[in-house]
Amino acid sequence: MKALITGASNGMGRDFAIKLSKDGYDLVIVARNEDKLKSLKDELNTKVEIEVMDLSIKENSFKLYEKYKGQIDLLINNAGYGDCGLFIKTDIDKELNMIDLNVNAYHILTKLFLKDFVSKNSGTILNVASSAAFEPGPLMATYYATKSYVYNLSMAIYEELRREKSNVHISILCPGPVQTGFNDRANVSFAVKPLTSDYVTEYTLKKLKKHKLIIIPGFKMKLGVFMNRLAPRKLVLKFIYNIQKRKTNSKN
After folding, report:
1. By the 8 A CB rule, do 202 and 209 touch?
2. Which of 32, 30, 35 is nearest to 14 (CA)?
């Protein structure tokens, strides 16, 4: 079995690689930081191939697929980042780069590898979204929107596969705060205690084996998602705004 993991140099991507290698998977690990990928490779016991590339560049996603088409059994789309601030003040170039990575790279890799999986009637895709996928996110508007895209795209694909009675599976990871490097790049501090990356990835892989569609680690986050569905939209907007405001205040 062979897995391809994007954003593998840090956080959940790194922990996914460690756990899958222990399970016997050969790996393709993808990130921009060559030194971190080499260091990770040295820790793993299975065959590991390193791809140093920036997936916010559209052509790189196509190159990655062309190199590994027909070889992958599990695709984990994990690369991504966020940003925080008033929409009129956040940097548009950073936001467009975020969309390229958080949306376009996911879309391209999901579509191309899914075609391979469907043709052989086996394979699994894990798209890493966020609890942000379930709601609008004032003060993190673009990030929340990217995760909503990933969530809704993956949900639609699930139903198409189900209708075709396919043996191909797709899952969506929707965690709340996780202790990774995300908050530094997004320029925020978590307003609540985050889960550890080790716990989230261990929990996710257990659910992935059972072909769970939506994976939400942690009871509090499950409860929060459930309550969000019942609450009026304007109330949710006020609540999320206050959460993001506390994040930026604690960072400053």
Report:
1. no
2. 30
What per-residue string of b and e applies to 169-205 under the rule 16 or more CB within 10 Å gives b? bbbbbbbbbbbbebbeebebbbbeebbebebbbebbb
Q: How far is CA 22 from CA 30, 41, 77, 125, 203, in A?
A: 18, 13, 20, 19, 15
Residue 35 amino acid letter: D
Which residues make Cβ contacts (< 8 Å) with residue 70, sequence separation at least 6? 116
Bridge-partner residues for 27, per DSSP? 3, 48
**Nearest one of 172, 157, 162, 166 to 126, comparing CA atoms:** 172
Count how many domains the chain has. Answer: 1
Give 203-243 pLDDT, tens digit per residue.
Answer: 999 999 999 999 999 878 778 777 777 778 788 788 788 88
Nearest to 239 by CA among 120, 136, 90, 133: 136
Q: Which two tokens stand for residue 74?
A: 């599990």
- Domain of residue 84, CATH code: 3.40.50.720
- Enter the pTM of the model: 0.89
Residue type, position 16, single letter: F
pLDDT at 106: 98
Asked whether 151 and 212 are in contact (CB, 8 A), the reply is no
DSSP string, 148-200: HHHHHHHHHHHHHHHHTT-SEEEEEE--S-EESSHHHHHT---SSPPEEHHHH
172 with 180: CB under 8 angstroms?
A: no
